[in-house]
Design brief:
Strand order of the largest sheet: 3-4-5-6
Structural class: alpha+beta
Radius of gyration: 14 Å
Number of strands: 6
Strand content: 15-25%
Largest sheet: 4 strands, mixed
Length: 133
């Protein structure tokens, strides 16, 4: 069974990193893992993130993150910041991490992006995670 992919950046493009060994089983957990940033092992592989740093304590910021169905085939992701100010790469990271198949709407601080699909963003070949067995 395939694990959940968290999408970081490498060479300016989206790269999925499997996180099955991390026990990520839901879109909410996947987005929370993305927001914590690449691990030291990921950074050694050249992976980065276009997402802004979280403010306040990590626990408080991540507690605000949820991903839940908003309609059939649609997912609404709530973030601790305004998603309308993010770059296209950051939006792609969030959208593709939340779901490879659903339309994803990002919301936070009273602002919401139009729903997009992971296929709207160019995704490169998967990168194995050092955390995978």
């Amino acid at each position: 069974m395939a694990g959940t992919a968290v999408h970081f950046l490498k060479d300016g493009a989206l790269h999925p990193v499997e996180r099955s060994a991390a026990g990520i089983t839901s879109p909410t957990e996947a987005v929370r893992a993305l927001l914590t940033g690449p691990s030291p092992e990921d950074r050694k592989q050249g992976l980065t993130s276009a997402l802004p740093p979280l403010t306040g304590t990590l626990e408080a910021a991540l507690a605000k993150v949820t991903a839940a169905p908003s309609a059939p085939g649609r997912l609404r992701v709530t973030l601790p910041y305004d998603p309308t100010t993010l770059t296209p790469l950051a939006l792609g990271q969030l959208t593709c991490t939340a779901s490879a198949t659903a339309l994803v709407e990002l919301t936070g601080t009273g602002h919401t992006t139009p729903a997009t699909h992971c296929s709207d963003y160019a995704v490169q070949h998967p990168v194995s995670s050092p955390e995978s067995p």
